[in-house]
Structures are given as C-alpha cells and as structure tokens.
Amino acid sequence: MKEKTMKEIKGLTGLRGYAALWVFFLHATWGWPVDSYAMNVARLGGSGLTIFFVLSGFILSYVYADLFKEGRVTYTSFMRARIARVYPLHIFTLLLFAGLANGGYAELGENDTFYTFLLNVGLVQSWGFTQLVSWNQPAWSISTEMFAYLLFPVITVWVSRANGAVLAALLAFLFYCLLQSPYAMLVAELQKYGILDVGGKQFAHGSSLVQLFYVFCLRVVLYSIAVKAKPALRGASDLMTLAGCLLLIYWCGTETVDLALWQSSLCASLIIIPLYYETKLSAALFGNPVAHYLGKISYALYLTALMSESVAKRFMYPVPLIVNLALSLIVAALLHHLIEVPVRRWIVQKSKSKDAATITPA
Hints:
Strands 1-2 form a two-stranded parallel sheet. The protein contains 16 helices and 2 strands. The chain is globular and about 55 Å long. The longest helix has 32 residues, at 321-352. The protein is an all-alpha fold. 71% of the residues lie in helices and 1% in strands.
C-alpha cells in the first residue's frame, strides 16, 4: 500500500495551541486571588484539557476512520504511530523531572515513589493504580489518552458505520454521561457503604479515566456527524463558531470553580466542526500563523511549563508572568524541534520497513 498523508487542518492545530495556553495560565497563576474576569478565566484553565481530548479524538477520526473501516491500516501500525507521537517526549520529560528533582530544581511529592515512577514509564499512572498525580504531573492526561488510543480502532469502525439516528442517540447518551457522571456516582455509592475508600482523591478508582473516555468517544461521534451532516451544517458553521466562543466567554464569567465536562465539551464541539469545514471565520480565529505555531509546540508546552517555572523560581521569586510565559514557550519550542519531531520521524521511518501501509499522522 502507498503511504497516505492527510492534509493538515491548521485551525484544529491552532485551537490546540489556545487550549495549551489556557492550561498554562491555570498553572502559572495558581494561588493568585481571583479578583477579575481574566483571573477567573485562568482559574478555569483545566477545561483546556477537555478541549485537548475533544480535538484529539476528532483528528484521529479524520486521519484513521476510513482507513480502519476499509481495512487499510493495522492495529499495530496505528499504535506504533500513537506511541511515536506521545511517548518520546513523555519519557524525556519524566527523566528530566527526575534529574531536576535530584539537583534541587524541582520538588518531589508524597506520591513520587519508585512504584509510581514505573507507572509513569508505562503511561498507566491515571488508570486507578494510584490515586494522586505523580512525577511530571501534567502527564497524567497523556496516560488517559493512551487508554483511549487502545480502544479507538474498535470504536471508530463501529461509529463510522452507524446511521444518523444511532449517532444522534450516541451523542445524547454521551452528553448524559458527561452531565451525570454515572461511574463517579457508582464509586461514591460504593464508598458510602464502605466497599471503597475514595477520600476525594483525583484518580479514585479510575474516575478521571472513565470521564475523559466519554469525552474521547464524544469526539469520535462528532467526526461522523460532521462528515454525514456536512451539507446541512456547513451553512451554519460561522454561527456555530460564534455560539461556541460566546458560550465559553459567558460561562467563564459565571462559573467560579470549574466548567463542567459537558459545558467545555459543548463549546469545543461547536467550535471544532466549523474548523473541520475550514470556514473563513474559524480559519482566521484559530488557523492564523501564531495560533498554528502554538498548536505545533502545545504538547511540549503542556509537559514542560511547570518544570520551567520551577527552575525559574530558583533564580527569581516570584517569577513575573511574562517571564514565565516567555521561558515556557522557549523551552517548549526547543524540545519540540530538537526532541519531539526528530524522534517521532525516526520511529516512523523505522516503522516503514515493518508495515506495508504506513500512515503519516497529520
């Protein structure tokens, strides 16, 4: 089979850049007084992760849905491409964090043990084996992402063959799951009767894993809807973009703790479908050169921003926000160009000799 390269939709990449910046501002302003709209937006930066998850599944579906449906790509080659995408930079930043901690430039937490280090190496640290974040803390979401990758080929084949009625039912069911959190409710009930001990911890028995898996499935369904309903939805694309942005702006002014998963997922859905159609408004907002480059380095920015700030604090405290942002962007750009991209290309090139059909991810 010939190698297939999918066209990059720059707006989707750019949205990822904005999402990474949102998470950055959450971390960089943690502990600051929430005394303005801007600070409230920063406090809600965890929703940037939801946007990441909606984007990731949507893009994976864009690249792989037809290939899996038609049997033109193997599960092994898909997983090899996914590992090439996320694992090299993850393991590099994990070792970097350990080295910085050993040198006194980063602090180890109570859960940073040899056991959790091995969980991080295997990218299973958020699967319920431990209840707290550990080592390079942002990597917990990459662990959740890896779980979704393992199941994606089965999900995308089934969803791509579903008709409109089934897709609508799936969409409603997934939003119900995001609204009611049935698994979290089950865990809470088991705790009430003394069967489980949750203790309010972040990864209590895989709750975060299951909730974000719902988000992942949502984006796979969204892609099929975007493809099948393109003639009907394309004309309303700019209105969807505006609706998604305005809802996000409104909720950032009214919510003070965090946006619910259904809220951030709804906003992301309204914004992402027009990006897939590449309308002029969405391309201008999210596909401009600045946003596009931020999207390119977003993975490195997400994994290293906390470490960059930790090192900077050893030389100046407090670290001015503009200095923190500039340093984090420089470090992210360097790691993207020197580690992330070269290693990924090397793995993909090595894979070509093993697979008859090779996908170059967009």
